[in-house]
Design brief:
The complex is a heterodimer of chains A (295) and B (197). By secondary structure, chain A is of the alpha/beta class. Chain A is built from 13 helices and 9 strands. Classes of the chains: A alpha/beta (295), B alpha/beta (197). Strand 1 of chain A pairs antiparallel with strand 7 of chain B. Chain A: One of its GO terms (biological process) is pyridoxine biosynthetic process.
Chain lengths: 295, 197
């Protein structure tokens, strides 16, 4: 039969199924089960959550395949994993293991400071981070089938994710209201593929799903990112660095589904315990800002 | 004119709404149990079936959905097929469990095995492109179930009375013939209902 794998529709469609959901970072099978039980739409298998990567310093790499394998075997929801920016082999290794989505992630230490992966060449779909529309569309141009804000990972401070989502949304609105003969100049200014600007103008939104990520620590944070137009949220350190991961995970899922039901968010936020400790962004050294990785 | 809901807990909700909007129907995104009232039909979208079930339980949707299914037509795509199935391989019990089929989850493999392929669907003249994403298939069907499409001998679309289900995602293509088929079912069912009242 005439059967095609790895098409844009199949890769982007996978992300469409995740919409309205929460994707949680996990470091072992036990955490993956907690995430699945709480209603996560997928898990991201990692060796360390971003706040621990931040604390440890040094070079952060793809997780030990054993961890990825354990997580894949533990849950029936999709499993994602991170490779370093530009690391062709880490990406191929994860693909060969049957990972459902790869995050070419600034949370890990980039191996290529000039070139991101040519993601069109893979059967497995990719998600990439972005701070603005130009960056987002360059990644889509390379074949990313899903986007997320970069935010500032591992800080428990959602300010950067808010900044990135607001900027991307306002840049989309600007394109929607421009006339077609203005788009080439806008493409030049954004350093983004012209064809993708045409698509945004036609659709009034990005051609792929766009989640929020980087610093989400509470149910209200997750709901805020949905309010600002995110299709769903990634929660990294926010769950398993909190006082009570089970409760936090469930509450964040619920707040994401019902992000405009403020009474409900009030109720689920009661007695949650202490959220992960946060970091003020201005106290970070420039070299510790993960969002500056990649272009 | 009929009133059709799309269960709006998680998944490809917007795409179903878009496909249905062009039809003779008023569309409601159902996030709360009360919204099921007055609907003539319901779509269960694709998404993560495990997640959707958790949310269904959390908001007390299961019994209302079963009550709805006892009276009205439902269309389930991918995860929606799982929710409708009476039997699910490797799982004890079912979710809404009204369609007399046995479904197998992620039956075609993981994401890298996900695919699209032309399908010949009963009732549709030309081929339909099926987009299969970590898709299930139907392993067995009861006597009253009509098989509408197969792919490599696996059942990927079926109808059982007022229930329509497919393993692929009609909401991810611009081809709205499956949605039209469901709207026709809803119209037909509503007319019959009015006739017997």
């Amino acid at each position: 039969m005439n059967q095609q794998t790895g098409t844009d529709r199949v890769k982007r469609g996978m992300a469409e199924m995740q919409k309205g959901g929460v994707i949680m970072d996990v470091v072992n099978a036990e955490q993956a089960k907690i995430a699945e039980e709480a209603g996560a739409v997928a898990v991201m298998a990692l060796e360390r959550v971003p706040s621990d990567i931040r604390a440890a310093g040094g070079v952060a790499r793809m997780a030990d395949p054993t961890i990825v394998e354990d997580v894949v075997n533990a849950v029936s929801i999709p499993v994602m994993a991170k490779c370093r920016i530009g690391h062709i082999v880490e990406a191929r290794v994860l693909e060969s293991m049957g990972v459902d989505y790869i995050d070419e992630s600034e949370v890990l230490t980039p191996v290529d400071e000039e070139f991101h992966l040519d993601k069109r060449k893979y059967t497995v779909p990719f998600v990439c981070g972005a701070r603005n529309l130009g960056e987002a569309l360059r990644r889509v141009g390379e074949g990313a089938a899903m986007l997320r804000t970069k935010g500032e990972p591992g800080t428990g401070n959602v300010v950067e994710a808010v900044r990135h989502q607001r900027l991307i949304q306002s840049q989309i609105r600007k394109i929607s209201s421009m006339s077609e003969d203005e788009l080439m100049t806008e493409a030049k200014n954004l350093q983004a593929p012209f064809e993708l600007l045409l698509q945004i103008k036609e659709l009034g939104r990005l051609p792929v799903v766009n989640f929020a990520a980087g610093g989400i620590a509470t149910p209200a944070d997750a709901a805020l990112m949905m309010e600002l137009g995110s299709d769903g949220v990634f929660v990294g350190s926010g769950i398993f660095k909190s006082d009570n991961p089970e409760k936090f995970a469930k509450a964040i899922v619920e707040a994401t589904t019902h992000y405009q039901d403020y009474e409900l968010i009030a109720n689920i936020s009661k007695n949650l315990g202490i959220a992960m400790p946060g970091i003020e962004i201005s106290s970070l050294k420039p070299s510790d800002r993960m969002q500056e990785r990649g272009w | 004119m009929v009133k059709v809901g799309v269960l709006g807990l998680q998944g490809a909700i917007r795409e179903h709404v878009k496909a249905l909007e062009t039809k003779e129907a008023e569309i409601i995104v159902v996030k709360r149990v009360e919204q099921l009232e007055d609907l003539d039909g319901l779509v269960l979208p694709g998404g993560e079936s495990t997640t959707m079930r958790r949310l269904i339980d959390q908001y007390g949707f299961l019994e209302p959905l079963k009550a709805f299914a006892a009276e009205k037509p439902i269309f389930g795509t991918c995860a929606g097929l799982i929710l409708l199935s009476k039997h699910i391989e490797g799982v004890d019990g079912s979710h809404i469990g009204v369609m007399d089929v046995k479904a197998k989850r992620n039956a075609f493999g993981r994401q890298r095995e996900s695919f699209e392929a032309p399908l010949s669907i009963k009732g549709l003249e030309e081929d339909y492109i099926g987009v299969f994403i970590r898709a299930p298939y139907i392993e067995e069907v009861g006597d009253d179930v009509e098989v509408l499409a197969t792919f490599n001998d696996k059942i990927v679309a079926a109808r059982h009375g007022r229930f329509l289900a497919c393993a692929f995602h009609p909401e991810l293509t611009d081809d709205d013939r499956m949605h039209q088929m469901f709207i026709d079912m809803v119209l037909e069912f509503k007319k019959e209902g009015l006739a017997t009242e």
